[in-house]
Specification:
The protein is mostly helical. The protein has helices at about 20-50, 55-75. It has one domain. The chain is elongated. The chain starts with 20 loop residues before the first helix and ends with a helix.
Length: about 80
């Protein structure tokens, strides 16, 4: 078995599979929103008293990045 083939021996590369990336981004966005809701409603007071507001900011940044991803995919799809 050889590790390298000449260009004349290679088969052509397959075409990339068409996928709907919006589903993956939207799923992640929904999970960030649920995470923010759970943290804010269930652990909100404790996060403030323990000075762990960065947990909430992590969720907020995840939501913003997910929204930017959806905007990017909408522009790319045109």
């Amino acid at each position: 078995m050889r590790l390298w083939l000449r260009d004349s021996e290679r088969r052509p590369d397959p075409l990339p599979a068409k996928t709907d990336d919006r589903k993956a981004v939207l799923t992640g966005l929904v999970l960030w929103i649920v995470g923010l809701g759970v943290l804010a409603l269930v652990f909100g007071d404790r996060l403030i008293s323990d000075d762990r507001l960065w947990w909430l900011w992590t969720d907020i940044i995840g939501i913003v990045l997910g929204a930017l991803g959806l905007i990017y995919l909408a522009i790319k799809r045109r």
